[in-house]
Amino acid sequence: MAEAVAVQEELRSRVDLVGPGPSAPATVAGLDVAYAESGDLLAAAVTVLDTRTLEVVDRAVSVGRPAFAYVPGLFAFRELPALLAALDRLATRPELLVCDGHGLAHPRRFGLACHLGVVTDLPSIGVGKTPLVGVWTPPQAERGAWSPLRDGDEVVGRVLRTRSGVKPVFVSVGHRVSLDNAVAQVLALTPRHRLPETTRTADRLCRDALATATRR
DNA sequence: GCGACAG
DNA sequence: ATCTTGTCGC
Q: How far is Cα A25 from Cα A96, in angstroms, rounded to an integer?
């Protein structure tokens, strides 16, 4: 487990925090993982959406075993293998990865989104539903409002309101994307729901894959 | 020492 | 993450 931390400290030097990343990507990928109640089986899914129509144009899944125990801060080691396997099965090359979890908003500034970005060398961002690190003040109630997510004296992300009057999401940079662009991409992916269409479609796909794998 | 703690 | 019912609102 100490080795995992060492790996993060080593790889974090490869993170590109400047970006700014694609301003108008043609395709964006969503990644998510579902677990069986038994906890010994999981399904990872990647869906690639056409950013203009938000329709799924490519998809891939990977069923396997959790590669690591769930430890906050080392979360990537648990899902990364399966997610990479799913990414390898994609027929297309997405221009941006939208991860279900954090990027820089991590105790060592190397969350899942950073890890996935560095390993694939693809632009990536993290969109978390709940915080891992940082303090913030609630953003205004209107969609698009945000407030900085601060950890110590660093701004590690933004608390973004994707739907008026609904609980905000936590956006942070993963790799090769600027924070401004990360927020712009998330808003483009949330025309009607709190979570990006990318994570919603990936979530449905991995749940279906898990159900299929379980009943066999 | 006692909590908090992505999914 | 997963286990869970009804309910309020667009």
A: 7
